[in-house]
Amino acid sequence: MKLSKRITTLTEDESGGWALYFKARALVEAGESVTELTIGEHDVGTDAAILDEMHRAAKAGHTGYAAIPGIPALRDEVAARVAATTGVPTTGDNVVITAGGQAALFAAHMAACDPGDRALFIDPYYATYPGTLRGAGAVPVAVPARAENAFQPDPKDIAAAAPGAASLLINTPNNPTGVVYSRATLEGVAEAAQTHDFWVISDEVYDTQIWEGEHLSMRALPGMADRTLVVGSMSKSHAMTGSRIGWIIGPDEAVRHLINLSTHTTYGVAGYIQKAALFALRRGIDFETGIAEPFRRRREIALKILEGQNVVRAVPPQGAMYLMLDIRTTGLSGTAFAEKLLDQRRIAVMPGESFGRAAAGHVRVATTIADDAFAAALEELVQFAAAQI
Prior knowledge:
Elements: H1 5-8, H2 19-29, E1 35-37, H3 48-59, H4 72-86, E2 95-98, H5 100-112, E3 118-123, H6 129-135, E4 139-144, H7 155-161, E5 165-171, H8 183-196, E6 199-203, E7 228-233, E8 246-249, H9 252-263, H10 271-281, H11 285-306, E9 313-314, E10 322-326, H12 334-345, E11 347-351, E12 362-366, H13 371-387
Parallel strand pairs: 1-11, 3-4, 3-5, 5-6, 6-7
Antiparallel strand pairs: 2-8, 7-8, 9-10, 10-12, 11-12
Helix pairs in contact: 3-10, 4-10, 5-6, 7-8, 11-13
């Protein structure tokens, strides 16, 4: 039987940029010892108190169909958190709970784009972005952020690509680069959005992981609250990656239609998961800071290891749980470097090319293993790079 073009053309190849990761996982499953620095998975699991609340809620009977928009208390709590951190008035009516940030990205593009619409996104990008846009029926259009500008997008490039676009997807703090977009960058995005009348879909799942500068939500800029859909998630801020719970913040009308979309797709998120998320959010900012602290610490470890040599250069890591490393001095592509590193040293990192053309000649390193093991792996990566010259 013939499969739809929609599903067979989601990605340019079957791996969707994940080939190195799949190879590393296969080695591990075969019994090999591999140091995995590939994906953004915390090295400590979800806090026991959150799991206890999840168990209590399930035992209390919250295992049936839950409110499809999200339980009212959770929507209100998310709204209060967003209002407090961004300064933008927000109510539960501006919130729809989703099955994680990835589902939120898909739903947001379903809301913003008709089939065949041009949907802009910044390159380098999180590996699922182009497939998400194609899945929503849009035509993905990459806008490059250049290595020579430390991967800070140039508003002029956005404006040049903007005519006729229905949406622009941005991500700050950024995965894969660790860059925090500046106020000037975001003001340029806002100007283009208002001039050319497109939606901005702002992926802000790393908003608790800021090492330099400040996080400015796109929705907080003048004139942008009514044309911005913000994607948030419990995955990174609360180490709840497997719980699959996130949200979209947007104008009331957009949220009403997104709720209708949820009715026809996920049919909501399990009630006991929502109860656990509510409990987790109520633990406050200190808890979120504690979840982020290991990544702040490993950033400092990395910068000390990388200083005093010029073979491997770090893109300034301002946020998120990654390092984007420039290895172009080796003469290897990011893909070739990562393949050799895995084959010869059993260290797995993601090729920059997995995240777009603009990141060619780079590799992304996740700071997601214990400090000592992380330091040892990064030191070995630097030695390996030097040996390639």
